[in-house]
Amino acid sequence: MVFVRKRGAEAGSGKKRGIEMADLGNFTNTSEILKKYQFRMQKKYGQNFLIDANILVKIVEAAQITKEDYVLEIGPGIGTMTQYLAEAAGRVTAVEIDRELIPILEETLSSYENVTVLCEDILKVDLAALAEENGGRPVKVVANLPYYITTPIIMALFESRMPLASITVMVQSEVADRMKTGPGSKDYGALSLAVQYYAKPEIVARVPASCFLPRPNVDSTVVRLTRYEKPPVEAADETFLFAVIRASFNQRRKTLANGLANAPGLGVTRGQVETALEEMGLAPMVRGETFTLEQFAELSARLLQMRK
Ligand code: SAM
């Protein structure tokens, strides 16, 4: 479902206009609108709505949005951040899975002619087609993400053929830390490597649970991922590189040689991994969690060559 509402459509009509300006970012107005529509929060959709205007301003500022920008918002909820984005950006598309929120969004976004709401699952949206429909401009993604699908969303954004400029999102603090960390840390894994291959990750703000309704029982952090024009390492084959990375961390307790040889679909033998490691001057017992992005790129290029 798509709708577009025109700014000022009801001006002078004498009708009650409801909450249409960027003023939902507080407890009182959020509660009022939820009550008006008798909306019941759905835990399964990760619904924790932002009720702090300072954080909303901080997120939109960190995303560095101008009137030239096309913004994709994931999960607009009742439209709180969407209002701020609509004021700052040229165009906004907001993708919301919960159809119960659509009547609310029709009210809260009715003043903005530059917003389109799609009632869909973000993981099923053809992102490249969406960007094309909006002139093929670089896309800035901004969201207070549903935490239950943070990693699939981030991966889908990077792996889509969408011209992505940046991702500025609220995530669980633990996930933000995983995005930034390097080899040797317990948080280091496939997500760290994927994020650092595609983008420069920066922490924007730590956000207390009191800024949400209802309060989440985890800590939250806003991160900005600025897409590199060119990844910091050269991958012979990106799909194979990430298959190697995922296989290495799927079997954390195994050595790299055992983990990769056991990985279904990778098509490499234990002997090939050991030879590649030896050629790289590394011990056969080495583990994936100590490997840098450069080392994964080199290892996967060598294995690819051997598979041929
Ligand atoms: N942006 C709002 C805010 O900051 O107050 C709401 C953020 S809330 C943490 C996450 C939102 O994502 C909810 O509105 C939820 O319904 C929506 N959502 C959950 N899963 C989704 C999916 N697969 N595709 C699109 N939206 C989804």
Helices and strands in order, then pairings?
Layout: E1 2-4, H1 27-36, E2 49-50, H2 53-62, E3 70-74, H3 80-88, E4 91-95, H4 102-108, E5 115-118, H5 127-133, E6 139-144, H6 150-159, E7 164-172, H7 173-180, H8 190-198, E8 199-207, E9 212-213, E10 220-227, H9 238-250, H10 256-262, H11 270-279, H12 293-307
Parallel strand pairs: 3-4, 3-6, 4-5, 6-7
Antiparallel strand pairs: 1-5, 2-9, 7-10, 8-10
The protein binds S-adenosylmethionine.
- Largest beta sheet, briefly? 8 strands, mixed
SS elements, strand count: 10
Cα-atom radius of gyration: 22 Å
| Strand and helix order | EHEHEHEHEHEHEHHEEEHHHH
Class inferred from helices and paired strands = alpha/beta
Q: Considering DSSP H and I runs of 4 or more, what fraction of the residues is helical? A: 25-40%
Strand order across the biggest sheet?
1-5-4-3-6-7-10-8
Stretches where pLDDT falls below 50 for ≥5 residues? 4-18
Number of helices: 12
Bound molecules: S-adenosylmethionine
What key attributes describe this structure?
single chain; 308 residues; alpha/beta; 12 helices; 17% strand; elongated; binds S-adenosylmethionine
Précis, in short:
This protein is α/β, with parallel strands linked by helices and 308 residues long. Helix content is 37%, strand content 17%. The chain contains 12 helices and 10 strands.
Describe the structure.
With 308 residues, the chain is α/β, with parallel strands linked by helices. Helices cover 37% and strands 17% of the residues. The chain has twelve helices and ten strands. The protein has helices at 27-36, 53-62, 80-88, 102-108, 127-133, 150-159, 173-180, 190-198, 238-250, 256-262, 270-279, 293-307, and strands at 2-4, 49-50, 70-74, 91-95, 115-118, 139-144, 164-172, 199-207, 212-213, 220-227. The strands form two sheets. The chain has an eight-stranded mixed β-sheet, sandwiched between helices. α6 runs parallel beside α8 (190-198), α9 (238-250) packs across α12 and α10 (256-262) packs antiparallel against α11 (270-279). It is elongated and about 65 Å long. 41% of the residues are buried. The model is unreliable at 4-18 (pLDDT under 50). S-adenosylmethionine is lined by residues 45-50, 74-77, 80-81, 95-98, 121-123, 144, 146, 149.
